[in-house]
Amino acid sequence: MLLLPFAGLWAGATIIRNTLAHETKAALPIICIGNLSAGGTGKTPVTSFLYDQLQVRGHKPAILIRGYGGTAKRPLWVDPSLHHANEVGDEALMLGESRDVLVARDRVAGAAMIAANGNHDVILMDDGLQHPYIAKDFAIGVFDGNLGIGNGWLIPAGPLRIGLQSGIKTIHAVIINGNDETGITSKLQPHMPVFAGHLTADQSIIDALDGDPVMGFAGIGRPNRFFTSLKAAGANLVRSLAFADHHPYSEADLVRLQEDAARLGAALVTTKKDWVRLPAEWRERIGFLPVSLDLDAADALVDAIIATIAEKGA
Predict the structure, then answer these.
(1) Is the Cα torsion angle 69, 21, 117, 308 positive or negative in sign?
(2) Which of 6, 127, 133, 290 is the most buried if burial means most Cβ atoms within 10 Å?
(3) What is the Cα–Cα distance from 44 to 41, expressed in whole angstroms?
(4) How far is 203 from 185, CA to CA, in rounded Å?
(5) Which CATH superfamily is domain 203-289 in?
(6) What residues form DSSP beta bridges with 124?
(7) What CATH class does 4-199+294-313 carry?
């Protein structure tokens, strides 16, 4: 309750910023994948999934991302063979392994750079749902089914970046990652398209461990989701350690993790997002568990995005 006045200040600052902001329309369609709350909801797997689906349908997407945690100040095409997570951010580096990804703090400049490149016909903007300076042609709100909107209060009293009812008005479709345990569906507008998503771990990685002890660690928005995925996939998880989101692992951190795992006779396993932040020599010693998104009725969502692309190009 003590933080409620600060939540009011957050709301006031947001209103002022949005009132003063000049919204720019990009040359290419902007498909925004974002969330109404702070913390991990699974936006990056959704972005990966939609990129791949649009490619299969013959489109040429590019991903526009801020590059949280990176030092790059100007728009930059991500090249995993040249860049490190401390330059472009862990999410951008992970996405850039097999996809066209542009990091840009200035989303307007980034969108313009992608359009000028001439090789793409749609932009998938990872995050930025509340970014008031660029117009979104189609916006997808991603929710964690386990957490929903938490206590329903604004930052810092709660997890919301924007009030639920105000936020819902800015999105065209909703993806709920995991089972809807908080009844978020009932809080949405009656005709809002809602899609159920589930993150699936790569079973071959777990099978290769053959029941050996595993020590899991993660520095993501929802570390417990990773530990749950490990156990659900059948891993013999003997210890789990959670770090802050985007945690920059120091040499001391990694040595301590290695020593703890050795005492337990366990293999170290982390998320792909954490793994790309590790120094190259440590990547050889630590495994990661890839996850992919399964989305119910995915064709309907992709069809809606393709219709938006066609409308923008008309």
Answers:
(1) positive
(2) 127
(3) 9
(4) 30
(5) Response regulator (3.40.50.2300)
(6) 31, 63
(7) alpha beta
